[in-house]
Amino acid sequence: MASLLSHPPVLRLIQFPPPPSKGGITVTTEDLECLDNGQFLNDVIIDFYLKYLLLERAPQDVAHRSHVFSSFFYKQLTRRDNASEDSTSISAQQRRHQRVKTWTRHVDIFKKDFLFVPVNQEAHWYLVVICFPGLEEPQCEEWRSPASQRGTGGEKPGKAQAEEEASGSEKLNGVTDVPPGPTNTDNQDKLTLTVSESVVHGDSVLQPPPGPPDCTEKTCHRENVCKRPCILIMDSLKFSLHERVFKLLREYLQSEWEVRRGSVREFSSEQMRGSHCKVPLQDNSSDCGLYLLQYVESFLQDPVVHFELPLRLEHWFPRQQVRRKRDEIRDLVLNLYRHQRGTVGSIGNMGNVGS
Q: Which residue ranges does the record assign to the Ubiquitin-like protease family profile domain (predicted)?
């Protein structure tokens, strides 16, 4: 009984973005604890930092072209039917779409270049990026880096998405979707880890050793680049297949197109290719959420412009950059708290959390 009484109460720290903006994510002292070394990031920290990246860190033109789904989106899309759902008159694909159709009520995802979908399965976080969902076939064009043409100042465009999501998406703020637990590398998506993507997708197996990326806005030196509709998986565990993820998201896009555009369009595996990116990998069992966040941050700050699959991003960022992220996110939350509340004095030893 004494141990229960001595446990510190859960206190609300920040809401981001703060009022009067809609769709704010509430971060509590309990959420902050998952930033301790060895802990798994919960959905609140994932959603908070993704929203912060889009609103505050992403270049304006990239933010305009991007949409970030809540970590609850894929969970809601793929959950089991409940008793109130009509399982006789409409297909499973239609039922899945109905669960999330309001999430895009105020955004046309087919006008976006990049859709970021955080996924948590079996206590493991990974990232899905849907690229150019509005395109029906690859497009090659002359490459001119827009970096020097970017504007500065003005309101961050990501704030518009925060308003959109507020009225359309269900929120799970303050609740951990998946309890921390050991990551099982043998059971990711219940699919084999031994099949080479080069065999699955017909890519050449004779590839040069990995070097620095040459397909992003800051690294591409090609005269022409190719953008293609595709679904990319960035998973910090060793290679695994996610064919069901590809299938369910293609079906979602098809239903979304039919509802929003009023016409039929096929999102086949040939038209909307699925590919596993070659990305930096985690070296422990607890940092998968940090890698997900770093994938999004690196993509938003230096987006891919040439889509020759699979993307070779093994040296996208150094491992040390991920190791610093727990402290960086904790400091960010506490700095926002100081700004929103004026002081952290009332939280006692909050400044020592995770030390």
A: 25-299
Active-site choice (67, 124, 242, 276): 124
Asked if 125 and 288 touch (Cβ cutoff 8 Å), the reply is yes
* Cα(27)–Cα(32) distance, integer angstroms: 7
Q: pLDDT, tens digit, for every residue of 235-244? A: 999 756 688 9
Q: Measuring CA to CA, how many Å separate 15 from each of 21, 138, 333, 354?
A: 10, 40, 10, 21
Q: What percentage of the chain reaches a pLDDT higher than 70?
A: 74
Alpha helices for the chain (secondary structure H): 2-6, 29-33, 43-52, 60-64, 71-78, 92-100, 158-168, 197-201, 243-261, 288-301, 319-323, 325-341
The pLDDT tens digits for 106-148 are: 999 999 999 999 999 988 999 999 999 999 999 999 998 765 4
Q: Judge whether 235 counts as a catalytic residue.
A: yes
Let me know: does 38 contact 132? Beta carbons within 8 Å: no
The widest CA-to-CA distance across the chain, in whole angstroms, is 70
Beta strands 114-121; 66-68: pairing state: parallel
pLDDT in tens, 80-106: 877 666 666 788 898 999 999 999 999
pTM for this one?
Answer: 0.80
Candidates 113, 235, 287, 302; catalytic one: 235
SS (H, E, C) 322-349: HHCHHHHHHHHHHHHHHHHHCCCHHHCC
Of 230, 288, 302, 306, catalytic: 288
Nearest one of 46, 70, 53 to 157, comparing CA atoms: 53
